């Protein structure tokens, strides 16, 4: 009666826990009672659970009772004596016999078989040998019993294929060994079940005994599921020896079972061939090749004949193709010895690649990419018999195998791959219905195509494949791409509206660019070693080039594409300098063919085309390298003429100037100096003139007047952006010049002499822009400027989407105030002003940051007060997005590159206002986020959005971005290059008692360690240390990653110096806060570093300060004896790694496993192959959580 009473109470608790109508208190009470039963007397748990699995209870209660039984077996099995365990197993097997009634739910059957499998795994091989005869007997009775046996066999290897936290490594290895030894019994049983019940299902279906046929079919399905549980790890020769591969191959012809059979072949196809594989492995894998090629061959033949194919057949073909891809990517060497099979396989994969169905083509694309990437991993193998690289795809690493497979890649195969790739570079939605080039029935990529990423990713894969084919077969690729390009160009003469064909023309430009890059990148042995091949290639591309040069297109869209075609040939021009002049003349012809009137909506496309043509000059200057140098004077003369005639806009001049800088970098430092002088001297006269600075930058209203002068406003914009380009493009170019050839006096960066006149007006300009956000100034601003200061829709969308969307620079320069464009001088609108402000800020910050990296010119020619005034005067009014940009582009380069002799003069002035404000702003916003669920940031004030959630997401994104950038400053403080004088701890852990006489004053590190310098200056140290403490408490693991190195340096100095304040901070504040940080799950991936910090504090400071021990003793779950045992464990090892492990275990113990960052660190140690050879591991079949969420087998249903 008492037993029945407990069972009734448990049943009521289960129902209360599952009933959504239960109150929270009732549900919590039910969970607590169930936990007490699971943790109580193991025999009561067993008897109660066995009572509740009987048929008189509801399905919900029975399912939970089975999970309680599985919990017992998994976690408390050892508490039963051997006789009790035998009786328990016997009762569980009897349950399998009792639950075979067809009316029983599948979930209950599954849980019953899972329970028996759990017992067999837990008890080991001896019990399995006792159970197996009864299981065979049970499987011979009827289909229902056979289905249960198959289910049990399916669950048996569960802990091998799916990681179980409760199963230790030794037990898993024992289970693996025991199951492997049992395969000669298991596999024949599985094959017998497949053969018997598949035949019976067909027979009964033929007799119209559909219910009986369904029962036999259920056995086949359950058996296939069981087979698939072994397919990932069981020795492949065993799968072949006992007929499993053969049986699953037969089932591929059955519509009812072929998808399950496909799953088996997919799993075994992924098995990577061991390096010491025996003949049996190759034979089994070759058999799999043959089986799959038979099915795929039938499908492809039917498809090519034009016969009707239904969706089910296409679904099967996708599965088969996926397995074929896995086979070819991992085990191609298994058939490499058979020429006919290898050739047939490659033809079939080509058939899938050419197939009209996008899904089949896509799968095959992955194979061809893998194959070509591996075969061409060393470009010298093209046309050469020498290669020593190991090829993952073909496995052997021998030159002969790789070259043999390369030999099968005939010109015909490569030509077909290119034809298909060229066609599929198009997207369905972009094709004009009236296009002249038909794609036939080809199923092009569409936005409706799900599960394969986006079109950009797919197209990049196609282009990568085109590059590989071009590297392997340069002549084939060159002929194909030139032929198709010229065909498309000629077709444009036959259509009334050539612009409609633009998408086809653009797609081929991408193909041309990739082919040319692959052929002329200098790595192809075929091209380099054969002058005849070089000449043939040059003739092909020169023919295309002449066709392009002869075109007289003037429509902006066509002009733009033609420019792209010309710059795609840039690498070809490097090897053919004779045609460079013609290309340059053509580009200028295209440029001048377009009108340049600014602000005229009718010419916006022309302005865009002009900018793109100027960009083509940059691309060609990069690619053509020294071939373009003889034409520099001609380009300069043409630019001068166009500028004199007023036919070259300022933005265009900047782009051509950037191209000039690239050319000069190929010519040497002296040429760079001359080009920079030529380009910058006219700018310097305007830029340094005091008149405009007094007129527009002397008071807060000056920018209002500047915005009313559009020509000058945009002139200033283009000056700043060109300074940025000049800094980026100048300097030594790799491979073109040796430092030894430069006189010592010329070792300065080419831009060093220009910094002194560039930066002072720029600082004034940035100070004026910063002042716009101060309340006293912003209140008096006109509406357009106020509106322009707010975030744009594009910026807000990028925040909400989490992407990195930003307006391209080209769109900024369209609003070009050329002094030769009198009619365009209208008042700038909100978008113009926003673009101008954003462009000046972005480029201006970059100019300052880049100037800091080219030597000490910035620090010598400027005084720190003027820089601090410009950057920090209004920092308290700065929006988070602007402050993050300032930190990233200006402050970090300044800190990294400031000479240590100038730290005192520069860094304290800059860092004090910066860190003080950042700490207050971040602390306020994080407090709001964590307490109120809303980060209050200044960027979105006054913005009305339709959804509060959107605003919350944007605010949090802005907060996290600034937090991470601020923590990056602390990370830079701790960087090794700025802390060369920082001492290092001994590698041994036995250094807890530091010799007091070896300690130094903190000031001793102030000139050789940036962290030492920071800590010596209280105005910087206090906010920096406060940020580091607060960052550890904020839920941002990335910020903690950045700040942890700073904390480590602070600890090191606390250990190595006599400074008591620093030691107090580390022991009193940093130590408990670091432990507190381990309570945040967001810090899981940085938890090892945090534990290391705790270990260093305790080991090196616990004997010099009482607080580390006191803090540990304050935790609720330990005693002083536990602490003594912990310290004793530390003293027994000199290994820092072992000491960290002791610290981790002790912290978990002390906090009662409440440190989520440590608890979240699950080691996924999946055993994947009996032979212990490395191979690809497919995703786990399920994830594990804590016991409350039913781990392991209990979580299946």
What key attributes describe this structure?
67% helix, single chain, 1197 residues, mainly alpha
Layout of helices and strands, plus pairs?
Layout: H1 2-18, H2 24-39, H3 42-52, H4 59-75, H5 82-98, H6 106-123, H7 125-139, H8 143-155, H9 158-161, H10 169-206, H11 210-231, H12 236-241, H13 244-251, H14 258-269, H15 279-304, H16 311-331, H17 339-354, H18 358-375, H19 399-408, H20 411-424, H21 455-472, H22 474-492, H23 502-520, H24 525-529, H25 531-550, H26 556-568, H27 570-575, H28 580-592, H29 604-624, H30 632-644, H31 650-667, H32 669-687, H33 690-697, H34 702-707, H35 710-729, H36 755-771, H37 775-778, H38 783-789, H39 793-801, H40 809-813, H41 830-852, H42 857-861, H43 864-872, H44 880-897, H45 903-932, H46 948-973, H47 1010-1016, H48 1018-1033, H49 1037-1056, H50 1060-1077, H51 1087-1101, H52 1107-1113, H53 1120-1131, H54 1136-1150, H55 1156-1159
Helix pairs in contact: 1-2, 1-3, 3-4, 4-6, 5-6, 6-8, 7-8, 7-10, 8-10, 8-11, 10-11, 11-14, 13-14, 14-16, 15-16, 15-17, 16-18, 17-18, 17-20, 18-21, 20-21, 20-22, 21-22, 21-23, 22-23, 22-25, 23-26, 26-29, 28-29, 29-31, 31-32, 31-35, 32-35, 35-41, 36-41, 36-43, 38-41, 41-44, 43-45, 44-46, ...
